[in-house]
Specification:
It is built from 16 helices and 21 strands. By secondary structure, the protein is α/β, with parallel strands linked by helices. Strands 1, 2, 3, 4, 5, 6, 7, 8, 9 and 10 form a 10-stranded mixed beta sheet that branches.
Length: about 675
């Protein structure tokens, strides 16, 4: 029988960045059952085409944001991955380590300057079970069934058409509901349905399925009348789930359980990493035991309530694990705060996670002391297990050390039988002798180190004395120079600043003089009757109109000039109509809605009027202005007359239509 080879993709960025304009290039290493293949300078789209073809088990990177510029782009990329393909960050989760350091720990050598080496290291580390899977989606799938097209504005067959479309949505919804019911019976997957009824069927249906998208046998599709959309629910935060190490002994875990019709399961490592978090409706206890055993050996099984429920106690006894519970009632706010970092899908997962996290926190300080006290190369997990079961730290360390020595002793080297008393004395004496020898060596090393430190200190003292004397001489010589230089620098800076200020003021005075002359000229023209004043509004917006009104006033009979008439609509035009301005001058066309508002408000809109400008004021030639207003009023009168004729014609046509149909 043909066996599918295990395929792992290792990817490292070779040139550029997802945040740069130029598309980045990548190095790709493909690991097929130990055999590596390299590809250089590939674009991201090319790699995703290869992923669709090969469907690798894992895509391994040292930093997920080398593939995407931000979270939204990463979300889009992960939605395109085939079902079952994992994206893994081999350098860790929330607090990643350098790739070189992790590779060295696992005996993998690489050149940090070579993207091909880094891509291969990512693939091989993922193959060993190193890294964290990136989880951006909840174990929840949303299915939406809706109309595939609009129902339109109406017509003779509108109701029949609506019934047909809504019937298609109803039929598709029932097909999906039957599929989900079968899935629930076979695998215990829970779902909820919300249907919005319409004429002759459903307007839309929405299903919430508490399972991953790959576990739901429904796919997006569209027909003439109904369409189906299937999508995963995005998490609030990225979750990093540790991979299961390959070919290693099963580790000890802390398990939190929330019993009931729906069972919540949370599994932590003794380092506090979240290994598993999920809830199941109607799951049997032996299935719970299988899931827990798959992720390691439970050292502690915890519940978030006291006393521990009987169903949890039964599972605990099957593993001979230590029981744990908080001893006090934990509020919902505390549970939410505890689980916020990890994320959860429902209250059952939250309560299970709370039990596991509170238990880990109660042991965290003890675990830290164990890590500090334990000798190098000790089995820390086994020491922690003994301490969890009630041993002191010293006793647990000694027990693990003795067991390790017993395993290392040759099988054939058997000593003569000893009496229990003699054996105990000999073991005690041996331990004391080893302790004294170890302490003697440590004292000797410390004495040698102290001697070295004294010699280094004396040499440094001599060097410091020489440098201090030289420094004093430099200070005396440089102090006066520095002071003079600083004073000159301050003066130069002040002079430069004053020059800039004077230049700016001269420019301001010149500009004000120019404006004053222009305004004086306009005032003379107005007094002599040679011009009509016009107020300039910078833009056809509510803000610009309000600004002009606040600065210069806006009263009945004013003529205004819209410097930039585009952008304004009916509401903006209405402000000027309500101000009862005499006329509006524009340099270019305005929107139809605005012009219609001015027409209804009897405000002339004038084009091609020559103006004498001075900032926010202008002057128009009176006769030209009067003539333009008169022309506009004539055109407006014709337009009103035409509108009345059209209205009468419309009424007449309506009357004739009703006569023909016999309604009158």
């Amino acid at each position: 029988m043909f066996m599918q080879k295990r395929i792992i993709y290792g990817i490292d960025i070779a040139r550029g960045s997802p945040r740069a304009r130029e598309l980045p290039r990548y190095a790709l290493a493909i690991l097929r059952d130990g055999e590596i293949s390299h590809f250089s300078m590939l674009r991201r789209q090319k790699i995703f085409n290869m992923i669709q073809r090969d469907r690798p088990e894992i895509i391994a990177v040292d930093n997920i944001f080398e593939l995407a510029a931000d979270r939204n782009e990463l979300l889009s990329l992960m939605e395109r991955l085939p079902d079952g393909v994992k994206l893994v960050q081999v350098t860790g989760g929330l607090h990643p380590e350098p790739l070189v350091r992790i590779a060295r720990k696992h005996g993998i050598s690489l050149d940090p300057e070579n993207p091909n080496d880094e891509a291969e290291a990512c693939a091989r580390l993922a193959d060993l079970g190193v890294g964290h899977e990136v989880s951006l989606f909840e174990d929840i799938t949303k299915i939406k069934v809706s109309r595939a097209r609009s129902l339109g504005r109406g017509g003779w067959s509108q109701n029949r058409y609506r019934r047909k479309v809504h019937g298609a949505v109803l039929q598709r919804s029932r097909e999906i509901e039957n599929i989900l019911k079968d899935l629930s019976r076979e695998k215990g997957i829970r779902f909820e349905a919300v249907n919005v009824k319409g004429f002759g069927g459903y307007v839309r249906s929405e299903f919430t399925v508490y399972a991953k998208r790959g576990e739901v046998p429904v796919h997006s599709m569209a027909s003439n009348d109904a369409q189906v959309s299937v999508r995963s629910v995005e998490r609030d935060k990225i979750r990093y789930v540790p991979l299961k190490p390959r070919s290693q002994k099963r580790k000890f875990t802390i398990v939190g359980l929330d019993p009931g019709t729906t069972v919540g399961i949370a599994i932590l490592s003794l380092d506090g990493d979240l290994l598993y978090l999920k809830s199941f409706r109607g799951i049997a206890p032996d299935e719970v035991v299988k899931i827990i055993a798959e992720y390691g050996k439970p050292a502690v099984i915890a519940s978030d309530v006291t006393p521990m429920p009987g169903s949890v106690e039964k599972i605990r006894r099957s593993f001979n694990a230590v029981p744990a519970s908080p001893g006090i009632e934990v509020s919902a706010e505390e549970k939410i705060a505890l689980g916020k970092t990890f994320g959860y899908s429902n209250d059952h997962e939250r309560d299970a996670l709370t039990a596991a996290l509170l238990t880990y926190r109660s042991y965290k300080n003890i675990f830290t002391r164990i890590e500090k006290k334990a000798p190098e190369n000790s089995d820390l997990e086994l020491i922690k297990l003994h301490v969890i079961r009630g041993e002191s730290i010293e006793s647990a360390i000694e027990k693990v050390r003795a067991a390790s020595q017993a395993r290392e002793k040759p099988a054939g080297a058997r000593a003569a039988p000893e009496k229990p008393e003699e054996k105990a004395v000999d073991e005690s004496f041996q331990r004391m002798r080893e302790t004294v020898q170890r302490q003697g060596e440590q004292i000797q090393n410390l004495q040698e180190y102290v001697e070295e430190l004294k010699q280094a200190m004396a040499a440094k003292d001599r060097k410091i004395s020489k440098l201090e004397s030289r420094l004093k001489g430099f200070k005396k010589e440089a102090y006066s120079e520095i002071r003079k230089s600083k004073e000159v620098q301050i003066r130069d800076s002040t002079i430069e600043s004053l020059k800039k200020e004077l230049s700016n003021k001269n420019k301001t005075v010149k500009e004000l003089r120019r404006r004053s002359n222009k305004l004086r000229k306009i005032q003379k023209m107005e007094i002599r009757g040679e011009g009509t004043p016009v107020k300039v509004i910078a833009a056809f917006t509510k803000e610009s109109i309000a600004e002009t009104k606040e600065k210069y006033g806006l009263k009945a009979g004013d003529v205004v000039f819209l410097e930039k008439p585009s952008g304004g609509g009916a509401a903006t035009a209405q402000i000027l109509v309500e101000a009862r301005v005499r006329a509006v001058i524009i340099p270019e066309d305005i929107s139809h809605a605005a012009e219609e508002t001015f027409f209804k408000g009897d405000v002339p809109v004038l084009r091609d009027i020559q103006l004498e400008r001075a900032d926010d004021f202008a002057m128009a030639e009176p006769e030209a202005l009067k003539a333009a207003i008169a022309t506009w009023e004539k055109e407006a009168e014709l337009k009103r007359h035409k509108a009345k004729e059209d209205k009468l014609e419309s009424l007449f046509e309506e009357y004739r239509s009703e006569r023909r149909r016999g309604l009158i």
